[in-house]
């Protein structure tokens, strides 16, 4: 009987940027926790040998993860290396030799998507894919047709249960904490529905540009890079129904239902922007029409949420780096003048720290009569240094066969269905200055009362810090 845990990890793209910045630090952390004790085979075409890969791993850890001497020694003892062209059968014959008696390897494709089909076909022909798992890095397709074609290629060799489509956002503790907040706390169910919530907004802001990745980004853009995957996953966690069982498929069933309830985005409900100076980046076309900012209004035609607008915005060169959810409540039907009231709100910050805050009205200090102010009661947690990184969590889950943190075939295709119509349209792109909240035209895709900008000064009277 084949063990359910992978007995080898192969990662293609071992000399690449992703491996250097993320994968080696995650592998060392897995070793340190005792979660990795099987051969780790790097594959790349760099003209390197094993000693050079070990040196690359050491340099990666010194710059991006912190070198732990004991864990690093164990890691380099597990490392193997195959140098060769992904187009050549000899590369995969050498990989088969390095795998030796491994019967349940996990193949992680940390390579450009254009190479996925070639590598998968060679894995099949060389018998490296027999009994194996495949872990595929995003972006998963460029549109619906390419995603469907990629699924066809993968599922021609691997079962869906052995196919793990990485969205590293699902490896973040804070994103999964949304599920814990909703389903482990009785009081949330009482108000988290269309009867009490007026609108919901999700903001993913970055205060930096494309960081030397202009060539990649100009072929991708904000909608493909973070909206269609990362932010749809956050949205699904936020508004899905409770799964009937705790297994991964029941959870993923509910996420797919969320996307099925969302009609395709209409042009009037999208504003695209591009920060000034983007076209001067290396690899970016001088007449580029790629968005670095997007604001979207979505409808969710489900029993719980029909009639509640959902607003998503994401962008680069914004005033801060932060991911935050704000749900605005309907105003109460009180005798107090509506002009004196600010909507109650629930604020969930996912990064850089984890925050749960409830905004409410109360009397102003030294108030005479009914003088009100808006205050927040807040609990906040800053990530600890020893917490699992997202890549550590998703790689570990894939090697154990746990699909909970991964996108299923139907989920990916539904996500593309929602965004594809506007991706095919020649919608306008509006310039915006760095360190602003996008172009002025975003006003037409704005929640009632305006966007809640992370970092805006708030009146906070009631604050508790959770360790």
List the helices and strands and how they pair.
Elements: E1 8-12, H1 17-32, E2 40-44, H2 50-64, H3 69-78, E3 79-83, H4 89-99, E4 105-109, H5 116-125, E5 133-136, H6 144-155, E6 163-165, H7 173-183, H8 186-191, E7 197-205, H9 214-218, H10 221-239, H11 248-260, E8 270-275, E9 293-298, E10 310-315, E11 322-329, E12 345-351, E13 354-363, E14 372-381, H12 390-400, H13 409-424, E15 429-432, E16 462-463
Parallel strand pairs: 1-2, 1-4, 2-3, 4-5, 5-6, 7-10, 8-15, 14-16
Antiparallel strand pairs: 7-11, 8-9, 9-10, 11-12, 12-13, 13-14
Helix pairs in contact: 1-2, 1-3, 1-12, 6-13, 7-10, 10-11, 10-13, 11-13
Poorly predicted sequence stretches spanning 5 or more consecutive residues: 457-467
Average of pLDDT: 92
State the assembly state of the protein chains: single chain
Shape: globular
Structural class: alpha/beta
Any key phrases for this structure?
467 residues, alpha/beta, ten-stranded mixed sheet, six-stranded parallel sheet, 13 helices, 16 strands
Folded structure, characterized:
It is a single chain. The chain is α/β, with parallel strands linked by helices. The protein has 13 helices and 16 strands. Helix content is 33%, strand content 20%. The strands form two sheets. A ten-stranded mixed beta sheet has the order 15-8-9-10-7-11-12-13-14-16, covered by helices on one side. Strands 3-2-1-4-5-6 form a six-stranded parallel beta sheet, sandwiched between helices.
